[in-house]
């Protein structure tokens, strides 16, 4: 009889941080058949609050296959006949180790690449990654390893939706939040040219029609703009340099 008011009070605030012992007790309640049927609403609340559904699906795939592969690709126009193409290939292994190889090219202008050796762990609805010192050195024909200490988190839903294949981002979409820290170990502060002024919403002929808002697709601010990568940040090339190049 008291479960109704108690659940209403708990549902008004987010679930507090849980230590390992309390976390284990709650998960035990969720997985116990007799306890689950006693209060379906509380079970659903726990699944939603702890993001259990995507976590369970991901861990099941890791256990069944020994690893999970996730490939992420995106193409972003930076100016007329000039675009950025990025590709990331992750492998999450059952022993808690992950490997990543990424490449980034700008047509004939330049290219970058690196590989990761690190550890992963699931936190809520993200896979948290941290680079470690590799056990072996990269061969001459291999890409260099990233330094230890890079930390970033990839959404579980993106990995699960790819189903072991490719996730292709929409052309012109902004970079995912995890891309910059995965490549450079830096957190995007929002002050770089990339986020502050490189992209602008595309105008739509049906913008006056009242309809549900669709995700914005972004285009470069100027068709003749040219950019270079300096320490992981994009900077626009001066107009006189472009004209004389």
Task: Provide structural commentary.
With 245 residues, the protein is an alpha+beta fold. The chain has helices at 3-11, 20-31, 33-38, 40-49, 52-65, 156-162, 179-184, 193-196, 239-244; strands at 67-79, 82-93, 97-105, 111-123, 126-131, 151-155, 166-168, 199-201, 218-220, 227-230, 233-236. The strands form three sheets. The chain has a seven-stranded mixed sheet with strand order 6-5-4-3-2-1-7. A hairpin with a 2-residue loop joins strand 1 (67-79) and strand 2 (82-93). Helix 5 (52-65) packs across helix 6 (156-162).
Give me the secondary-structure topology.
Blueprint: H1 3-11, H2 20-31, H3 33-38, H4 40-49, H5 52-65, E1 67-79, E2 82-93, E3 97-105, E4 111-123, E5 126-131, E6 151-155, H6 156-162, E7 166-168, H7 179-184, H8 193-196, E8 199-201, E9 218-220, E10 227-230, E11 233-236, H9 239-244
Parallel strand pairs: 1-7
Antiparallel strand pairs: 1-2, 2-3, 3-4, 4-5, 5-6, 8-9, 10-11
